[in-house]
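Record type: ASSEMBLY
Status: queued
Input:
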Amino acid sequence: MTLPQIFFLITAFVILGSALMVVTTRNLIHAALWLIVTLFGVAVLYALLNAGFLAVVQVVVYIGAIAILFIFAVMLTRKEMRDRGPQLNRGWWLSGVIAALTFGGLFWLLQAWSGFSKTAADFPSGFDAVGQLGNALVSPQAFVLPFEVASVLLLAALVGAVYVAFNRK
Amino acid sequence: MIPLSWYLILSAALFSIGLFGVLSRKNAVAILLGVELMLNAVNINLVSFWRYGDVSMMAGQVFAIIVFAVAAAEVAVGLALVISVYRRLDTVIADEIDMMKW
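Status: finished
Output:
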């Protein structure tokens, strides 16, 4: 066991434990706070994978914007928050079976793949991952069109969200 | 070094937990929380395939960024719908929102 492996196992334990809390806890505010723990664990994984820019974006966008939006939504729909009665559907055990089957199927598919246990090569010397990512996002030979489409989608979605949630009274 | 399989198994497990949340929760906001877990599992996969493949091909990271943008759009519209429904029907239980049921 090397140090990165121990670090990975601790992070994975935190991610899976807090994700289980997100889907099982009764109080929705607590679920949103557990989601923040999960998202932070995923940011640590990005840092382990040498994707520093994505780790920062994960903290700023996911934790800073999306998780806070969830907390606001829970507070605005507060009457249901204290959760009288069960939080899960009557057929929740069936959902558990489907989720377990999905995991089993994915695992079975993956372990048959030849590249399953390969390890990462070191970066080439002088390789600048963040600079390459920035170039790829704005270069016409690479991903400038998907990037612009994503920004238009975001704008349209935010205008639509304001329109849908607007109180016309 | 950490083998690729560890990341893939973690992401499959996170996806399954999110799927369980989406299928079993009653509250519409909790269903959206499950969707967020599934999107994060996909992102872990994308970034780990970038790192374990050819690192000069940035497609994995670029797609992860686009998933971020789509997730933000999805949450904004989804929560706006939930708040709008809550105002009209006074409920956020997904089973009780059945105005469009034939």
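Annotation: Helices of chain B lie at 4-24, 28-52, 59-89.
Annotation: Chain B has a mean pLDDT of 89.
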